[in-house]
Design a protein that fits this description.
210 residues; alpha/beta; Trna Endonuclease, Chain: A, domain 1; 5-stranded mixed β-sheet; 8 helices
């Protein structure tokens, strides 16, 4: 009969006996227990780190854009107020008067082009084109610039690595490149100062891991 497979607890006990034999006395038991506790916590952990990851949505661009729009909405139930929007506008050096009206739209379409997230605040328009793994469509950056050129624009290209769009020819030099982790960092600072909802913290952790 084949010997029964050893369990994690069996391995821990064997390791403890070896440490005892070679290190009699001292305070090693405390440190050993701490290492084992950390080992247990990692060994039994599986699946995604966040709920969106567990559901397979952490790379879904539409879901991520809707989550970002929700986080930027001052009246959202995320309990962050206007903090996320102010943080983003401040990062982009977009001047906005206090109490300016806010409008946020997702997948706003003009002709053959869709803008992922459009933020309008007091005469200023911020267009966020977001990517995770998808590539750029033909002339995508220039089409966004052309179709929304009548507005006072700030163009943001949001990706996993923070690169400038290669389809920006006519609009070269007009795009601000940001990584998802950059947005997560600024939103985390806001959340740490407020009573952020669980959903807000969940979303922030999701985009911070992209």
């Amino acid at each position: 009969m084949a010997p029964a497979a050893s369990t994690s607890e069996d391995r821990f006990d064997a390791l403890r006996r070896e440490w005892t034999a070679v290190s009699p006395g001292g305070d090693w038991e405390h440190h050993f227990s701490r290492v084992i506790d950390e080992w247990r916590s990692v060994e039994w952990r599986s699946g995604g780190k966040t709920l969106m990851a567990a559901l397979g949505l952490q790379f879904d661009e539409v879901a991520l854009c809707r989550g970002l729009a929700w986080l930027l909405e001052p009246g959202g139930s995320h309990q962050l107020g206007q903090g996320p929007l102010d943080a983003l506008l401040g990062d982009l050096d977009v001047p906005v008067a206090e109490d300016a009206p806010v409008e946020i739209r997702v997948e706003e379409a003009r002709a053959d082009t869709r803008a992922d997230v459009v933020v309008r605040v007091g005469g200023q328009t911020v267009i966020i084109e977001a990517k995770v793994f998808a590539g750029e469509q033909p002339r995508q950056a220039d089409r966004l610039y052309t179709h929304w050129a009548g507005e006072n624009l700030t163009l943001v290209f949001l990706t996993r690595t923070g690169y400038v769009p290669y389809t920006a020819r006519e609009s070269e030099g007009l795009w601000v490149a940001r990584a998802w982790r950059d947005v997560a960092a600024m939103m985390r600072r806001v959340a740490d100062r407020t009573d952020a909802s669980a959903g807000a913290r969940e979303f922030i952790e999701t985009i911070g891991a992209l």
